[in-house]
Amino acid sequence: MLRSIIDKGIQQSHTVRNHMRYFTSDTHFGHPLVTALRGFLNNGRLRAEYRDVWQAQGRAAAHAWIKQYVRDNQTSFKAICDIARHENTIIGNINELVGRDDELWILGDLSYRCTVEHTLDCLRRINCRHLHLIIGNHDRNFRLRSNDALYENVFETIDDYREIDMELPVLDGSGKITAATAHQSIAMSHFPRLSALAEEHGNWPENWNKFADVALTTEGWLLYGHTHQDVPDGTDPLSVNVGLDAWGFKPVSEQQILEWFVA
User: Fold this and answer.
1) Domain positions in the chain
2) In CATH, which superfamily holds the domain spanning 18-28+100-262?
3) What's the pTM?
4) Calcineurin-like phosphoesterase domain: which residues (predicted)?
5) How would DSSP label each residue in 164-212?
């Protein structure tokens, strides 16, 4: 009897899930423009037409097409988008992957064009107990850190910039990525490096110079969002875009990030 209890305990210990860290960016809760551009439209016919343009001509053409549709029909993105489905998809994907005791780092742009309460309601629907915020330009505490108090009951930490240690590839003498790995420091910022902003790399809003003072000028490993790129490719070999648009509207784990760097 005692032996069976011990064996059962050993089996259970082997199935205990290690705590994981996940990363995402640009949830844009409540934001009609981003919701529509991501294809969350409340009319089935329009949604199908938009998808067809995207598949046939690419994302940029689809964005231009839906913007022209709004102008031609004298409507608005708010009138044609499906905010609830957009938010339900993002929150559902997070809750499916991220455990209650895991960490989830959101690299900015939580919401836009909605109330603080709506933002908080969305965040409270995330089942993870360990939420962390890196502030983005659409967040209410961007350049106004007194507004951190709005979010302090849902986030364990709130920063403009943060570094953590994680398993990352070792670089050789010439700075190239090798197959070896070691615990190293990686930076998190809503913005890509300043050099990438200056080159207008990605698909972010115009007037990049508005954010030149907060973009990183240092080298080294970097996680960022902001650009709404639809691929994880970083703006340089040591960075990766963790934004929702690049990862199928799902958060990305630290293991996936390591695998991406060494692939």
Assistant:
1) 18-28+100-262
2) Metallo-dependent phosphatases (3.60.21.10)
3) 0.90
4) 95-229
5) EEEEEEEE-TTS-EEEEEEEEEEEEESS--HHHHHTT-SS--S-GGGGT
